[in-house]
Write a structure and sequence with these properties.
Radius of gyration of chain B: 19 Å
Oligomer: heterodimer
CATH class of the largest domain in chain A: Mainly Alpha
Shape of chain A: globular
Strand content of chain B: under 5%
Number of strands of chain B: 0
Number of strands of chain A: 14
Largest interface: A-B, 32 and 30 residues
Distance between the termini of chain B: 37 Å
Radius of gyration of chain A: 22 Å
Strand content of chain A: 15-25%
Number of helices of chain A: 16
Structural class of chain B: mainly alpha
Order of helices and strands of chain A: EEEHEEEEHEEEEHHHHHHHHHHHEEEHHH
Helix content of chain A: 40-55%
Order of helices and strands of chain B: HHHHHHHHHHH
CATH superfamily of the largest domain in chain A: Cytochrome-c3 Hydrogenase, chain B
CATH architecture of the largest domain in chain A: Orthogonal Bundle
Distance between the termini of chain A: 34 Å
Helix content of chain B: over 70%
Number of domains of chain A: 2
Number of helices of chain B: 11
CATH topology of the largest domain in chain A: Cytochrome-c3 Hydrogenase, chain B
Shape of chain B: globular
Number of domains of chain B: 1
C-alpha cells in the first residue's frame, strides 16, 4: 500500500502509516492522490526521527469522506523535488518544512520564510535585514504597512508595490506572533494545560480549536462522547460562527464607512457573545470545551435564553443585512473588489468560508463530518464570484443556516446529566488527525504518541495558513484603498498562522 | 465684521452637531457637542513632535494653513453686511488663498517622506483640483445673474422670488454642500473616522502632525465647515435686517451640519476611483446652471 485511508478522528497505529522513499512519495501524490479536484492537502509536516525527518502528508478526499495519509523519511541535507511546482497549494507547507529542517526543494518558486525571527542556519539574517521582494522601477512605489498596526489588531507586515493607486504586488510577512504553541503542547503535560493552550491558538476561534483538540484527545483515549455532549459542542461551534460572522459584517461596514451597518451589526453581535458569558462565564467561551466532559452542561434555562436571544436577533439581522446588500453605495464598494477566481482558489488550496465564496464547496461539516454532523447531511453554502461581496454575503447566508441548525440541535437535546466516564489512558504509538470546520474554515490538529502514551508530536493548522496567499492574490490590480475591505472580508488570523 | 465673528462662533460647535447627528442616527447617545472642541483644546495645549527628516516647511505649514482659512473667511459677508473686507472679484482671492493653505499642507506631507502621506497628498491635490472648476463656474453663474463680482454684492443682490432663482439656489446649495464635503475630506469622498491609513485622504496627510499643529489643522477644518455653511446661508439671507439675518444664519448652519451628519450615517463612501467621476459631475451641474442663466439673460 502506498497510503493508508482513514476517517476524520480515527486513531491508527503510527507504524501503519506507509513509509515510502521520496520518489515514490512524490509520485503517489502527484500522479494519484491530488488529481481529483475534491482532494486537497490538509497537513504536510515534518517530524524529527532517528533516521532524519519523517514527512507526513494528509490528503483529504472530500468526495469519499476520507483522509489519505502517507509518509517518507528524508535527511536534512536532502534537496527534494517540489510538489509546489505542480500543485501550488503545497507552497506554504514546503516553505515551513524548509524553514524548520533546512530541507531544500528544487522547483519551488520561492522558499520565503514563514515565521521569521531569524534564519535557523544563519542567525545574522533577521527580519530587520530581510530582503523584501522589490521591483526596480522609477514609476512604481512601495508602501509598507505594519507590523505595528494602526487598528488594534495583531501584528503583520504588508509590503505593497503600487503603480499609483493600483496594487501590482503584495508581500505578506508574518511570524511576529510566534509563541511556540506546538512545542508548548509537548512541554505542558497536564490535560487542562493543553486544553487551555488549544483555546489560545487563535483568540477568535476558541471553540473551533478546542473542539479539534478535544476530538484528538478523545480519539487517542478511545472515548466516545455522549450524544448530549456532541450536541452541546455543535451548538457552541455554530454560536461562535454566528457571532463572529455578525461582527465581521460590522467590520466590513466600518471599512466602507457605512455607519448604520457598522453600529447595527456591532450591536447584534453583543448578545450572541454575551450568551457565552451566561453559558460558560466568559464571552469567548473559554473553558466550555474540555476533552471527555463538560464543565458547563446545557440546561433548560439556557435553552430559553437562547430562544429569547435569537428571537430578538434574527429579524433585526435579516433587515439590516437586506438593507446593506441592497444599498447602491455599499454594492459599488463590494462588488468586483478583491476577486479570487474559483480556479485560483482551488489551485492555491483555499479552505473554509473564503473558498466557498469562490464557489469551492469545501466544508468539513459536509465532507468529513464528526459528532453531531454525522447525523445531518449538511450542504455547504457557496457564492459564485469570489469578490468581497460574496465573502460578505456568505456570512449572511451561513448565519441563517447556523441559526436553523442550532434550533434543531436544541430541540433534540435531552438535558439528562450524563454521568461522565473518566478518560482512559492515552493509546501508545498512535496517530490521529482531526478536522473541524471553525467559522473561518478547516482546522486540522494531528497528534502522535510515543510508546508510553505521551505526546510525541503535535501539529496545528489554522485555516489562515491556507488563505493568506488568497488575500495577497485578491488585492492584485485592485486599488490600494480597497485593501482594508479585502483584508476584512478574509479576516484571517495572525496568531493562528504564527502559532 | 459680524459675519467673521459669527463664523468663528459657529465653527466651535459645527463638528459637535455633525458627530451628535451621527450618534443619534446610529442609536447611540454620543458625546456632547463640545467634545470635538475639547479635543482640539487638549491638542493646542500640547507640544508638537517633529520627525528628524522633516524641514522647516513642515513646521510652518499648519500655521499657514490655518491663516489661509481665516483670510478666506474674512471676505465672506453676512447678506448685505460686509465681512472684514470686500473688493471686486474677491471670490477669486477666496479660492486661491484656500489653495495656498492646501499647497502648504501638501508639501508638508511630502516633506515627511512617508509613503502614506505622499499617497494622501496626491489624492488631496487631485480632488481639490477637480473641485475647483465647480466652484468657479458656480460663482461665475451667480456673478452673471447679479452683474457683480464680489461676494458682498452678489449675495446682497441675490434674492428669491422667481422660479429661476429657486432652481438656481437649490442647485447652488447642493454644489456648495458637496464642495464643502470634498474640501473638508468628508463623506462621501473621504471618511475621517476610519483608522485605515490606506483609504484616507486628508487624515493620512496629517499623520505626522501632533500637538499644537494638529489642533490648528483640526480647527481649520471646523472653520472651513462654518465658512462653507456661511456661503450656503448667504444664498438665503439677501437683504434681511441684521436682527433677522443672524438667527437665520445660525439656523441654516445648524441644518447644514445635520445634513452632513445624515449623509455620513446612511451611505457608504465612494470607491476612490469613483471620486473623480463624482466631482466632475459637480462641475457639469454647475455648467448646467451657467447655461440656464445665459439662456434667461438673452
Amino acid at each position: 500500500m502506498d497510503y493508508i485511508t482513514i476517517k476524520n478522528n480515527q486513531r491508527i497505529a503510527f507504524a501503519e502509516i506507509p513509509v515510502l522513499d521520496y520518489a515514490a512519495f512524490y509520485k503517489v501524490l502527484t500522479d494519484n492522490l491530488l488529481i481529483k479536484p475534491e482532494a486537497h492537502c490538509v497537513n504536510y509536516y515534518g517530524v524529527p526521527s532517528d533516521k532524519g525527518v519523517q514527512l507526513i502528508c494528509c490528503i483529504a478526499d472530500d468526495e469519499t469522506h476520507t483522509i489519505n495519509v502517507l509518509s517518507t523519511i528524508v535527511s536534512k541535507s536532502d534537496t527534494l523535488q517540489s510538489v509546489t511546482a505542480t500543485y501550488p497549494a503545497f507552497q506554504l507547507f514546503e516553505r515551513e518544512i524548509h524553514e524548520n529542517f533546512g530541507i531544500g526543494f528544487s522547483g519551488h518558486p520561492w522558499l520565503k520564510p514563514v515565521r521569521y525571527p531569524h534564519n535557523a542556519a544563519d542567525k545574522s539574517q533577521t527580519i530587520a535585514n530581510y530582503p523584501f521582494y522589490q521591483v526596480d522601477s522609477e514609476e512604481l512605489h512601495e508602501v509598507g504597512v505594519g507590523p505595528i498596526h494602526a487598528g488594534i489588531i495583531e501584528p503583520g507586515h504588508f509590503r505593497f508595490i503600487c503603480n499609483g493607486e493600483q496594487i501590482l504586488h503584495l508581500e505578506i510577512q508574518l511570524g511576529y506572533q510566534h509563541r511556540g504553541i506546538e512545542s508548548l503542547f509537548l512541554q505542558k503535560t497536564k490535560l487542562l494545560q493543553r486544553a487551555t493552550l488549544a483555546e489560545n491558538i487563535a483568540g477568535d476561534t476558541v471553540i473551533g480549536h478546542s473542539t479539534a483538540f478535544a476530538n484528538v484527545w478523545e480519539s487517542l483515549c478511545g472515548f466516545e462522547p455522549s450524544r448530549q455532549l456532541q450536541l452541546e459542542r455543535a451548538l457552541a461551534l455554530e454560536q461562535e460562527r454566528t457571532a463572529i460572522h455578525t461582527g465581521d459584517l460590522s467590520g466590513i461596514c466600518t471599512d466602507i464607512a457605512y455607519q448604520l451597518g457598522n453600529s447595527v451589526f456591532g450591536r447584534l453581535r453583543t448578545p450572541l457573545i454575551n450568551y457565552f458569558q451566561r453559558w460558560a462565564g466568559n464571552r469567548f467561551a473559554k473553558g466550555l470545551i474540555r476533552p471527555g466532559k463538560t464543565n458547563f452542561p446545557f440546561t433548560p434555562d439556557l435553552r430559553d435564553q437562547w430562544h429569547s436571544t435569537i428571537e430578538a436577533y434574527k429579524p433585526d439581522f435579516i433587515e439590516m443585512a437586506e438593507q446593506t446588500f441592497d444599498l447602491p453605495s455599499v454594492l459599488s464598494r463590494l462588488e468586483q473588489t478583491g476577486r479570487v477566481a474559483p480556479e485560483t482558489a482551488r489551485a492555491i488550496g483555499m479552505v473554509g468560508m473564503a473558498a466557498r465564496a469562490s464557489s469551492v464547496p469545501r466544508d468539513v461539516r459536509a465532507s468529513h463530518p464528526w459528532g453531531y454532523y454525522n447525523d445531518v447531511s449538511y450542504q455547504p453554502v457557496t457564492e459564485p464570484v469570489g469578490d468581497v461581496y460574496c465573502r460578505a454575503r456568505i456570512r449572511y447566508d451561513e448565519v441563517l443556516r447556523s441559526i436553523d441548525m442550532m434550533s434543531q440541535i436544541i430541540d433534540s437535546m435531552d438535558y439528562k446529566s450524563s454521568s461522565a466516564d473518566a478518560l482512559d489512558k492515552v493509546a501508545a504509538n498512535s496517530f490521529v488527525v482531526s478536522l473541524v470546520e471553525g467559522w473561518r474554515g478547516e482546522i486540522c490538529h494531528c497528534a502522535i504518541t510515543d510508546a508510553q502514551g505521551n505526546l510525541l508530536h503535535y501539529k496545528i493548522k489554522d485555516p489562515s495558513f491556507h488563505n493568506w496567499l488568497g488575500l495577497a492574490l485578491a488585492v492584485r490590480n485592485n486599488e490600494i484603498s480597497d485593501f482594508p475591505i479585502c483584508n476584512k472580508s478574509f479576516d484571517l488570523s495572525y496568531s493562528g498562522h504564527d502559532l | 465684521m459680524l459675519s467673521f465673528a459669527l463664523i468663528l462662533v459657529v465653527s466651535l460647535f459645527f463638528s459637535g452637531i455633525v458627530v451628535r447627528t451621527k450618534s443619534l442616527a446610529s442609536g447611540r447617545k454620543g458625546p456632547g457637542i463640545w467634545q470635538p472642541m475639547r479635543d482640539i483644546w487638549r491638542s493646542l495645549r500640547k507640544g508638537s513632535v517633529y520627525s528628524t527628516t522633516s524641514s522647516p516647511v513642515f513646521r510652518v505649514a499648519p500655521s499657514v494653513y490655518f491663516a489661509s482659512v481665516l483670510a478666506a473667511i474674512a471676505v465672506v459677508p453676512l447678506g448685505s453686511n460686509a465681512g472684514l473686507f470686500s473688493f471686486p472679484c474677491d471670490f477669486v482671492f477666496f479660492a486661491y488663498v484656500l489653495a495656498l493653505g492646501k499647497f502648504f499642507c501638501i508639501i508638508a506631507a511630502l516633506d515627511t517622506g512617508s509613503s502614506f502621506e505622499g499617497m494622501g497628498a496626491s489624492r488631496e491635490a487631485l480632488f481639490s483640483m477637480l473641485a475647483e472648476p465647480a466652484f468657479f463656474i458656480l460663482m461665475g453663474t451667480l456673478g452673471l445673474i447679479t452683474g457683480h463680482t464680489s461676494f458682498l454684492q452678489i449675495f446682497s443682490d441675490l434674492h428669491l422670488g422667481s422660479t429661476l432663482s429657486y432652481a438656481l439656489v437649490s442647485i447652488a446649495c447642493f454644489l456648495l454642500l458637496m464642495i464643502c464635503m470634498i474640501e473638508n475630506s468628508r463623506m462621501p469622498v473621504d471618511d475621517p473616522k476610519t483608522h485605515l491609513e490606506l483609504t484616507m485622504i486628508h487624515e493620512v496627510m496629517i499623520l505626522d502632525n501632533s500637538g499644537f499643529d494638529l489642533g490648528l489643522i483640526l480647527h481649520a477644518t471646523n472653520l472651513k465647515f462654518a465658512m462653507y455653511g456661511a456661503l450656503i446661508a448667504n444664498l438665503f439671507i439677501g437683504n434681511l435686517e441684521v436682527s433677522v439675518a443672524a438667527p437665520v444664519f445660525l439656523g441654516i448652519q445648524f441644518v447644514v451640519a445635520v445634513v452632513a451628519g445624515i449623509i455620513e450615517s446612511f451611505m457608504a463612501r465612494f470607491r476612490m476611483s469613483h471620486n473623480a467621476q463624482f466631482i466632475l459631475v459637480l462641475s457639469s451641474l454647475a455648467l448646467l446652471m451657467l447655461f440656464g442663466v445665459m439662456l434667461v439673460n438673452n
